[in-house]
Amino acid sequence: MTSGTSGSGGTETSGSGDIARTLELLWDTGRRPSRGPKPTLTLDRIVEAAVQVADTEGLEGLSMRRVAAELGTGTMSLYRYVPGKGELLDLMLDRVQRPSENPADLGDGGWRAALEALARATLALYRRHPWLLHVNQSRPILGPSALDGMEKVLTRIRPMGLSDPELVSAIIMIDGYVVGAARTQLYQLEAERRTGLTDAEFWQAQVPVLEKAMASGRYPVMASLSEDTFGPDFDHFEFGLQRILDGLEVLVERRHRSTDPAAGGS
Hints:
single chain, two-stranded parallel sheet, 12 helices, 2 strands, transcription regulation, Homeodomain-like_sf, DNA-binding
């Protein structure tokens, strides 16, 4: 699940459609026709097709016309189910955030395992749907998938003993960290695709100049770094994630000591 911390530079914005109508569609509270021919499409099919288009062509390729073509129908047929692209985008966001039904997917331990699993699952989500990084979700429309995901995580981390705003802030912190890591990975892939140079080729092209710079004596600390410092084997994502969790663990233990007389608190 995502918590809506993507930056404001997205090419699309959640909540840009008719909010009341979007909520009706997300929560299935709108009126259903009791008569007439059986519809040939369903809202689910439309949303799934839209996600498929965005996955393969990006948000720049997403339009009502393109989704209709994916479904093999006329564009006007879609408007019987969804008012426009703004509402459709919010339905797509909720669809891809649908949480796993397997409780083990949030780890088999306590709050730390749950947040660790959440971070990895969120990174995988952005890898499957890179277009999510181009959506400004600072004001998300909350549908059942988003709330189901939040409910599952909050249930697992409530034993941390933090205040309710702090619990939500912990989730936002994790999501913000993952968004940054996912965006860096996406930019690397886009740079390779646009330039035709692999990451290794890009850095190799700079070696002659960098070797001279290191030999100049101007950068003694950098020149002393081990050969594997910038190698691909070090997992920067996991290192950063574990340090965030270490910090939260210190806070949790401090709160436990302050509220439990048996633990030596006041």
